[in-house]
């Protein structure tokens, strides 16, 4: 019996049994064994990109950034996530082509969607989203830059440097698929834009892969099933729609996304370490010119998480501050979490960085507190289900088994009566670079919030205006308010 494995690697019949009866050679096919998706078949056109220094760079960029310092299992990288997203994108579009031949999905459509999934994260910088969301805004104020822009830059660089044979209109389509759009793109099938980076409702293979992969690596059980979503999808009026049976599955997917942001991505210790890494990179930027690499693909190609090692190994006195910060991380002498306030939605437009910031907190310190603005770090974050204040499931179209060519929305109350009333929360977090000042900073921050609450009561017409309320569970020892609580408890007894 002839070995299929050997045929896949390109052996002829003569190689297998000594006979020269055939000269047919089967094209080489490569596989990788992925912990999430099992065996993944890598086609030649994906290998053209994977086997390049630009794509291999993703092996050295942690998928979850600083979270690895808190969750030891979060050691996976953008490399495997990109291959997983490509695998799912390919399966998604091929499934549509099989179930709906009338869509006339051709080889080019499949190839471009697959490559968009593969290359969508080529532009991530060190520690993933930390680079474009935290470091670049501080290092290059006024410059709007995203990792998607970096992916376009690195896609062109990969093609040019490795002489990859690909048509210009294919490159253009791949870039648009990476960016995502809801606007018509001349001559292209709009449902293709719902597969890798879905701007209509956020249901895409990027999310399918990273939610499952991140849950697996940090040890969280994921309760939604992306394979069912892919099998129960079809295109209606140039839009990917899902079976009405998948409405709760989709709701659970977005809840899992929220839960990951709430419990893992925004973990206090991980955020404290992220702030330290940002400070280290900012301190090193005048010497290493890290931020300037975003406009130079040759330099950006060399920019990975290893920049931290470059700083550690350096002997330059100008990098001493950055080296000290990294050394503190290794010793677990990290910035300290001080306090957290969840802002009522009614105050989101009032309680912003213009009124809650480091200088304002310093302005509310007591006479002998002795901390200064550099001791304080104020971080605003917004956690939601993927579409800000809106429920993303409201933007998904469904079909029923009785009318598979008619699409319709499903209101939340027909999915579950236990869905959230709100889909977004804005959080203010306060950290300190100086652990000994933690209590003083918390008391000053709470005095600032009391002042804002008083202002709100005067400005808002409601009889019970919303307040920014401190969490008693976060109250540090020595806070006068804690003493008041204990005193009231004793009086009650």
Automatic annotation (TrEMBL):
Query: Where does the signal sequence lie?
Result: none
Region entry Disordered, spans: 456-480
GO annotations of cellular component type:
nucleus
A GO BP term here is:
dGTP catabolic process
Q: In the record, what terms sit under GO molecular function?
A: dGTPase activity
Could you tell me which PANTHER family the record lists for this protein? DEOXYNUCLEOSIDE TRIPHOSPHATE TRIPHOSPHOHYDROLASE, DEOXYNUCLEOSIDE TRIPHOSPHATE TRIPHOSPHOHYDROLASE SAMHD1
- The name this protein carries in UniProt is HD domain-containing protein
InterPro entries per the record? dGTPase-like, HD/PDEase_dom, HD_domain
Q: Which SUPFAM superfamilies match?
A: HD-domain/PDEase-like
Q: Provide the HD domain boundaries.
A: 78-199
Q: Where is the composition biased (Polar residues)?
A: 456-472
Check the record and name the PROSITE patterns matching this protein. Answer: HD
């Amino acid at each position: 019996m002839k070995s299929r494995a050997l045929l896949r690697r390109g052996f002829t019949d003569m190689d297998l049994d000594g006979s020269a009866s055939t000269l047919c050679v089967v094209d080489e096919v490569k596989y990788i064994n992925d912990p999430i998706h099992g065996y993944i078949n890598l086609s030649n056109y994906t290998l053209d990109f994977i086997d390049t220094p630009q794509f291999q760079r993703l092996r050295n960029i942690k998928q979850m950034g600083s979270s690895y310092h808190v969750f030891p299992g979060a050691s996976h990288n953008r490399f495997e996530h990109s291959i997983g997203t490509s695998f799912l994108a390919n399966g998604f579009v091929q499934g549509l082509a099989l179930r709906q031949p009338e869509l006339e999905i051709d080889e080019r459509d499949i190839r471009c969607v697959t490559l968009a999934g593969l290359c969508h994260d080529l532009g991530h910088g060190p520690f993933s989203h930390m680079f474009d969301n935290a470091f670049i805004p501080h290092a290059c104020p006024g410059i709007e830059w995203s990792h998607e822009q970096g992916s376009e830059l690195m896609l062109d660089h990969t093609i040019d440097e490795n002489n990859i044979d690909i048509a210009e209109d294919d490159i253009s389509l791949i870039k648009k698929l990476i960016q995502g759009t809801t606007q018509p793109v001349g001559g292209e099938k709009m449902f293709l834009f719902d597969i890798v980076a879905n701007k209509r409702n956020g249901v895409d293979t990027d999310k399918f892969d990273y939610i499952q992969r991140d849950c697996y690596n940090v040890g969280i059980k994921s309760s939604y099933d992306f394979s069912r979503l892919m099998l129960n999808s079809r295109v209606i009026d140039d839009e990917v729609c899902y079976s009405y049976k998948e409405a709760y599955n989709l709701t659970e997917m977005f809840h899992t996304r929220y839960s990951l942001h709430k419990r893992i991505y925004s973990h206090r210790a991980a955020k404290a370490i992220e702030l330290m890494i940002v400070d280290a990179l900012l301190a090193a930027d005048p010497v290493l010119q890290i931020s300037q690499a975003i406009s130079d693909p040759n330099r950006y190609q060399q920019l990975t998480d290893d920049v931290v090692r470059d700083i550690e190994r350096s002997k330059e006195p100008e990098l001493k501050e950055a080296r000290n910060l990294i050394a503190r991380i290794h010793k677990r002498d990290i910035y300290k979490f001080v306090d957290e306030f969840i802002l009522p939605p009614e105050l989101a437009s009032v309680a912003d960085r213009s009124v809650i910031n480091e200088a304002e907190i310093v302005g509310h310190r007591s006479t002998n507190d002795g901390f200064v603005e550099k001791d304080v770090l104020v971080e605003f974050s917004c956690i939601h289900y993927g579409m800000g204040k809106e429920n993303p499931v409201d933007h998904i179209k469904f079909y029923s088994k009785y009318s598979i060519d008619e699409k319709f929305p499903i209101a939340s109350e027909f999915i579950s009566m236990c869905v959230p009333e709100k889909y977004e929360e804005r959080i203010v977090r306060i950290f300190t670079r100086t652990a000994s000042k933690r209590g003083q900073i918390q008391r000053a921050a709470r005095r600032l919030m009391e002042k804002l609450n008083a202002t709100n009561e005067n400005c808002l017409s409601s009889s019970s205006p919303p307040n920014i309320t401190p969490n008693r569970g976060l109250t540090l020892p020595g806070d006068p308010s804690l003493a008041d609580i204990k005193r009231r408890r004793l009086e009650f007894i």
